[in-house]
Amino acid sequence: MDRDAYLVAVFLGMAQAHFYSPPPAANKGRPMIKLKEGIPPCPDFRDLKLRIITHNTETSSFIVYTGHVTSRFLQKFHDPSYACPNDDNASSSGIKIEYTRVPVWPILGLRERLGKALGDEIVGAFNQDEMKTWEKDPGEKRGEKRKRDLCPKLPIGDKNVSSERDKRRRGPQKGGQA
Questions:
Q1: Taking 60 as the threshold, does the pLDDT of residue 128 lie above it?
Q2: Where are the domains of the chain?
Q3: Is the whole model's pTM more than 0.85, yes or no?
Q4: Which residue among 6, 64, 80, 145 is least enclosed by CB atoms within 10 Å?
Q5: Of 76 and 65, which is predicted with more confidence?
Q6: Which residue stretches does the UniProt record annotate as biased composition, category Basic and acidic residues (predicted)?
Q7: What DSSP line would sit under 124-144, residue for residue?
Q8: How far, in Å, CA of 58 to CA of 39, rounded?
Q9: What is the mean pLDDT of the chain?
Q10: How far is residue 139's CA from residue 126's CA, in Å, rounded to a whole number?
Q11: Residue 75: is it exposed, middle or buried by C-beta count within 10 angstroms (0-12/13-18/19+)?
Q12: Is the peptide bond before 85 cis (omega within 30 degrees of 0)?
């Protein structure tokens, strides 16, 4: 299935959401622009870099789509009659979509692979060559284990202690007695 048209539509909607406010709830279902009013004022468009992350179950991978939407492209949708000056090369003044496949397996290193595909703007600065394993440092000293006696010393003549221990070994008995 060719998803290119859907990706362009989603990227266009995502880009426009940066510049237009959502319509008021009272206007839902009615036209937003009345013919008398004309075209609303043009927002101050700027170039945007947007991302969509999807997954492919057949290849067990994430797909990170990166869309570069230009201000000129957004201007064309704001005012379709507007012609950009020197618009000889339409592809350079529009939208460019790139994709990166990120394998899920092995899990170790997934953070780094996703970070590389998404970029520093989203995941922050990190070393792509150093995998984080969340294991403790082997040189780190751990707490000493407690040593336990195999046979605890019981007070001589205390029948309650031994009888409680015997009851636990036998388990619950019939008739409601423990």
A1: yes
A2: 4-132
A3: no
A4: 145
A5: 65
A6: 132-151
A7: -S--TTS----PPPTTSPPPP
A8: 46
A9: 75
A10: 24
A11: middle
A12: no
